[in-house]
Amino acid sequence: LTPSLVRLLRNFISMGFSPEYDVAGIADPFMQVKILHLLRLLGKHNDEASDQMNDVLAQVATNTETTKNAGNAILYECVQTVMEVQSDSSLRVLAVNILGRFLLNRDNNIRYVALNSLSKVVCEDLSAVQRHRNTIVDCLKDPDISIR
Whole-prediction pTM value? Predict the structure, then answer.
């Protein structure tokens, strides 16, 4: 099942699908999020499945548009998947860097999600989160109480 899902996700990234499912220039983000969620469930505690999906997770993380909410939803789900499966350490660093970029977003909802996710990641990979310490500390000065 994992190879089929990886192939399907790779098709979304490379050529898209039907234009009728396109949302703001992103090919069927709802399906991509569901596939990433399924991959997360399949890869948890499964080294073989995790190895099969590492490459496509890296492609999603690097090729997804970050200026649109649909792209941010895909990236968030990708980060969650990377953190749950047995992924490479470089892929985990990439996921933390995506959360760091989310912290720089003007949308407080995206910033809140990034802070919440980083609070869970800090126990596993302190050094990767440390790189974003200044941005995190700046969030303490934010006028929005949910960000503080």
Answer: 0.87
Residues linked to residue 22 through DSSP beta bridges, in sequence order: 27
pLDDT tens profile 55-85? 999 999 998 888 888 899 999 999 999 999 9
Tokens of 140: 């303490």
Strand 26-27 with 22-23, pairing? antiparallel
pLDDT recorded at residue 53 = 92
Beta-ladder partners of 23: 26
| pLDDT at residue 86, rounded to an integer | 87
Q: Which residues contact 146 (CB under 8 A, 6 or more apart)?
A: 108, 112
